[in-house]
Structure formats: structure tokens, C-alpha cells
């Protein structure tokens, strides 16, 4: 199939062709937390990276294969589920110096716009709320494909990443190093590996 449909004689603008395979994916999906991950990477002591993830999260997607701009996403992450592999560090992250999970138990993302950048690459833009601060965030995603699993579930997969400055969300705790610099970088890389199951 061509990239563009045949141009009508009395029109001057080509209309993008609709890929039937993508159109068939249109519908509502629930994120399968057991086969998805939401993670982060942050520089520690200026010399190495610490990686972590949030094990407890849920979310929904609406995919529109004929008009990707109409697709939406909603994700809720339970802060208490943060896991970096070190118990003391995780407790510090859950505490008042960082996320204050007892007062602000959820981190949320609500999309406001979506766009196809090229091929299987998309950008979803929305509002990320951490603690009591809501700011815009854009996530670049790669569509990994679709499949029917052994249980008959129709699945789609995406992976993507975004970078934020944690101070923009009020996460400002730090400590100075004797050699210069700080213990925790302001820049944080967020990563998303999403498997979602079609509903209905």
C-alpha cells in the first residue's frame, strides 16, 4: 500500500492512507503490570548510575489506529512500591526527603496529546503529578507490535523514555561531596516498557 491514497482530481492535498493492521488495534486497553515496568535511572555521587522501578502500577490506554492523535493514556503509580534493591535507600525515597509516600501515595500521568513522529515512533504528551506538583511531560515511544497470547488476549507493546529534572517536582534533597558536586543528580531518566491487553 502506498504512503498516500490516490489524489482526487479536484483536490490539492493528499490524504494519508490508513493502515488496516493499525486500524484493527483501535480500542481500549489495560496495562498488564505483571509484564510491564516503569523505571528510572539517576546519577549517584557523580560517578555511577542507580536504577530503580515501581512494581505497583496500573493504567489504561485508548488506541486509535486510524488517527493516533486521538489516542490517550492514564497511569497511576504507587510510590510505596519503589525498589532500587537497597532497603535503606528505598525507605529514604519513600520518606519526607523525597516522595513523602505517606502523604502523596500516587504518582500519576494523564495524557493531553499524542502524535505519530515517524513509522512506529510516537510521542505522547501529558501532565505528570508527583507529590502536589503537576507539570507537562512528553514521552517518546516505540511501538513494538501486537500479538495474541496463548490465553487469547490481544496485546500491544510499547517502550519509551523521558528525562526530567526532579527539582521541577519539588524533589530537591541533596548532599554535597567533599570533592565537589552532589550525591544525587537533578536529571532523572524515566523508562517505560508497556504490555497492554485489549478489552471487550
Arrangement of strands in the largest sheet: 1-4-5-7-8-9-10-11
User: Which structural class matches the secondary elements?
Assistant: mainly beta
Oligomer: single chain
Cα distance, first to last residue?
29 Å
**Average pLDDT score:** 91
Specify the biggest β-sheet: 8 strands, antiparallel, barrel
Radius of gyration: 20 Å
Q: How many helices does DSSP assign?
A: 2
The amount of helix comes to: under 10%
Stretches where pLDDT is under 50 for at least 5 consecutive residues are: 1-9
User: What shape does the CA trace take?
Assistant: elongated
Overall strand count: 11
Please indicate the percent range of residues in DSSP E strands (runs of 2 or more). Answer: over 45%
Written as H for each helix and E for each strand, in order along the chain, the element string is HEEEEEEHEEEEE
Structural overview:
By secondary structure, the protein is mainly beta. It contains two helices and eleven strands. The chain has helices spanning 20-23, 87-94; strands at residues 27-31, 37-44, 48-54, 57-63, 72-78, 82-83, 106-118, 121-130, 133-148, 154-165, 184-198. Strand 4 (57-63) and strand 5 (72-78) form a beta hairpin. The longest helix is centred in the middle third of the chain and has 8 residues, at 87-94. The model is unreliable at 1-9 (pLDDT under 50).
